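Could you help me review a protein record that somebody else here produced? Do not assume that whoever made the record got everything right. The record follows directly below this note.
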Amino acid sequence: MAVIIGSISMATADGAAGETAGGARVAAGAREAKAAPYRPGGPEVRSRLALVFDPAQGETLYAKQPDEVAPIASITKLMTAMVVLDAQCPLDEVIAIDRADLDTLKHTHSRLPVGARVERGDLLRVTLMASDNRAAAALARTYPGGSGACIEAMNRKARELGMLRTRFKDPAGLSGENVSSADDLSRMVLAAAAYPVIREASTASFHPVTLSDGRVLEFHNSNGLVKNTTWNIGLSKTGYLNEAGRCLVMQAEIAARQVVIVLLDSWGKYTRLGDANRIRKWMEATLPPPEPAPEVAAGTGPEAEATAPAAPAMTPPVRPEGVARR
């Protein structure tokens, strides 16, 4: 059942703030979220689980089973990217793709051949933008302490962010045991949006990777909306498994609001994109302008107020011509 009233709290389990790789503080908890006014006639969302959250206003604008736990597939890769950046692994370090990076669980394909030598920064981009499973496995394998330590760090960070319904079993999202809720994933999206590298990589429409033998592989974004100039997307990640259906999380500016959208368990190739467009049309047609943030006099208020991380500026990236492969 869809709910268009209420709110979610972004507080963490222990109230401690997290630190991004770039040194910016990610506030561990938002101010007390306020109830959203009832808005009849919500969007016709076909995804089984969904959430639309406005962190600046502390409002849940739309929710559909936001607390139910479900597989999240490659949405997992946002957490993998965060812990790699938290560990300050050098992005210019060259990593050789190993046979250990092959997917022996779902036997998915990758265009990165075993033996290819690729910079970690390129692997991060390909992981986030094209959702390449072999790239994600290589990032985890070369994490300090190896893949096991990477997965431990992912689960630890989930707890720190208050994602109490979330569990990670692998770094790529190939396991159906990687589970979360729409509520938890909204927290993860807000945390990930504090990393400039993740924002830029996840919204680029394509990225060329030059292999050590000189070959150039061009990878495209798995979210076709990023090349649509009518959308202003600040962060994006798709996911798909048979167990999870098609999934999508985004941070986007809609109707003068910077909102988090979570869509899980969509069936049909384009349902999640259709849901995102239906949500946007509904917001533009029905929502009043957001309330202005209260002004705080300089030098007043607590020195480190626990608020949700400020939504990043969402300047649309330059999008070259071309059709993104899905």
Q: What stands out?
A: Residues 2-286 form a domain with the Beta-lactamase fold (CATH 3.40.710.10). The CA atoms of residues 78 and 227 lie 20 Å apart.
